[in-house]
Write a structure and sequence with these properties.
Length: 209
């Protein structure tokens, strides 16, 4: 699959821009500078998303290699499973960065309430991860027989019925992953807003230990 601007270059550019902005922020605000912590949260959210994406695509490519060859445009090769995992890592990192940035903006934007603490945001990161995992498991279990995109008609000349079924199962897994992440991210933002309004109150959105 051609890539005219490699993922590693994009990461280097992103980190470089973050570093420049953080240095400018520190020069202007000294000890009150927060950009490096904000960007640190975004990067960690991206790393978490990358791990989820890598593991998910590593597993789902063993269920339906056809999904990644025909659906994602990867080349058929002996190391397809590894290439699929790396593809998921890249997509997961991007999704994590976007989700982290959205959460950061919603939780720390100027308002009548103090911004959410970074410790609270890190503590709530489990929510979109759990949502993605649950969604990736639940949707294929409940809906894999449904074919809203008509994969059967499109793939029937190319694949057997069993391979089409596995293709559809993996498609639903990915839909569930993204849907669950969005639901978990929304819950994370709501919990952060709740704690922001009542900073003295004991956190209520942490997983039981």
């Amino acid at each position: 699959m051609p890539d005219h601007f490699p993922f590693s270059y994009r990461i280097a550019l992103l980190l470089g821009l973050m570093l420049v902005v953080s240095l400018v922020d520190y020069h202007r605000n000294g000890a009150r500078a927060v950009k490096f912590r904000e960007y640190g949260f975004v990067i960690i959210a991206g790393v978490v998303g990358a791990m989820v994406g890598f593991v998910n695509d590593l597993i789902t490519s063993s269920i339906s290699p056809d999904y990644f060859i025909l659906g994602k445009g990867l080349e058929e090769s002996p190391d397809l499973q590894v290439q699929s995992g790396l593809f998921g890592l890249q997509v997961g990192f991007s999704a994590g960065v976007i989700g982290g940035a959205v959460c950061l903006y919603a939780s720390r934007r100027k308002s009548a309430h103090p911004p959410a603490k970074f410790s609270s945001l890190f503590r709530l990161l489990w929510m979109p991860v759990a949502g993605a995992i649950l969604g990736g498991i639940a949707l294929p279990l409940g809906f894999s027989k449904f074919d809203p995109v008509r994969f059967s008609a499109q793939l029937e000349p190319l694949l057997s019925a069993g391979r089409i079924s596995r293709f559809r199962q993996v498609w639903w897994t990915h839909i569930g992953l993204y849907a669950g992440m969005v639901v978990g991210l929304a819950a994370m933002i709501l919990c952060a807003a709740k704690e922001r309004k009542n900073p003295a109150r004991k956190p209520s959105c942490s997983p039981a230990v």
